[in-house]
Amino acid sequence: MMRSPHYYSVACRAPNGEIVVDTVPVEKTWIGRQKWLRLPFLRGSFAILDSMMLGHKAMNFAGNVQVEDKYQKVDPEAVAVEKKEEKPKTKSMEFFESIAVPLAMVVGLGLGLLIFDYVPQLVAQVIGTKSLKDQGGTLTNYVAEVVKIIIFIGYLALIARVAAIKELFKYHGAEHKAINALELAPEVTVETSRAQSRLHPRCGTSFMVIVLVVGFLFMPLVPRYPLTGKPGHILMDASFRFLIVLMLLPIVAGISYELLKIAGKFRNEKWVNYAFAPGLLSQKVLTTVEPETPHLEVAVASLHAVMKAEKTGELTKTDPDLK
Asked: pTM here?
């Protein structure tokens, strides 16, 4: 998936080998219509919500392409017979499909906060109270940030071992190569993209790493026990700290996003490469894999579609009936 200021374009390869493209104006999404979220230091939170919403929409579109009859490598007559046997959709099924994307986004956000924010606070609270005897809470705060980093790296390392995720990471690498070709090469083709790096400083992975670093520097300085000044019940303390983290998360995301913008603007400066090396390293080791020609073809098709929409307003839709 490629995103420009006003459009996003999804391209995926169907089972029969065809590349199916769908380009949509960003303003069609609720988040895309919230102009106030694009202000400096607010657009970090916008970036997270926007990526989640568009990511779910892209996955939903790609999934529909994979099961659409016309894109299958099977006998058309057999497909026609099977289609006749399908039951028509009920109103309840149509309603569920209409709320599937926002529901998935809410569930995904909730699970993400639970795993990457609440669990670290709970683990740190247990360690800080039982082992460290940390009455002030500052050391416990640092433990929470370390646990968060360990969970994040462990999660990426674990899913990177799954074959389907490795294939997804090849497309991720192809997207970076195509973007690098747009910024560094005379034109964007499969060959000019192939010659580029699969790493990019303005990547979502780099953003999350910056969030972790900024959080590590900023969050421990916020008092852990602002009301009582000392630890009490482990579960209550961890839950209250979790609420504090949630309230401060937009600030951390906002600062991180502005730093990411700086990294993209001065990407050729040595100090940027040194400062943002952890994000680039995480891409190299965990979230991108060297793509092959089929992956590059999809990435280039998506980029061309979004560039055309941004320049002319024309939407590329291989299958207008497919959503």
From this structure: 0.83
